[in-house]
């Protein structure tokens, strides 16, 4: 690892700590009505976009991440929703189909995921949780590189980050393996990044 990449890793880790603190306190201080209203309905540009995609990848919220599953209730019922799945800590992330009447089990990273025998899926559009983001599509994730590796092997999938508005930063530090988002959705706005949408 070069000094530059070591510095980037440390810079990202400091940002993660700061942004997790922001996210935690923002989510804890949302009143009940705001919490219930956030991420419950797809904004118009996204509902139109989803009509053109067969399988949507989402996630089961962990901690103070925004809970987006209510936005996709209809897709889930129709069998068009998939969630991340890890077979083991060293395994690559995959997506597996999930419906609301099916259990979510604790995965090797502590996150909730579909059962090991749920059918594999390849989403056309992926909604991923963020620790931080910038308006150019830069993202700060949990640090494991799971989404970046998945994006690298599935470049055709559209990538939409999900976060609270307080997670925005001026510029996310980027390594060569970091893959930019196409858009970001917060409780306040839908931000286009790049020209794929």
UniProtKB/TrEMBL annotation:
Pfam families: 5-FTHF_cyc-lig (PF01812). Keywords: ATP-binding, Ligase, Magnesium, Metal-binding, Nucleotide-binding. It is an enzyme of class 6 (ligase). Substrate binds at residue 65. One of its GO terms (biological process) is tetrahydrofolate interconversion. The keyword DNA damage does not apply. The keyword Iron does not apply. Its EC number is 6.3.3.2. Transmembrane segments: none annotated. It catalyses: (6S)-5-formyl-5,6,7,8-tetrahydrofolate + ATP = (6R)-5,10-methenyltetrahydrofolate + ADP + phosphate. GO terms for molecular function: 5-formyltetrahydrofolate cyclo-ligase activity; ATP binding; metal ion binding. PANTHER family: 5-FORMYLTETRAHYDROFOLATE CYCLO-LIGASE, ATPASE INHIBITOR/5-FORMYLTETRAHYDROFOLATE CYCLO-LIGASE. This is 5-formyltetrahydrofolate cyclo-ligase.
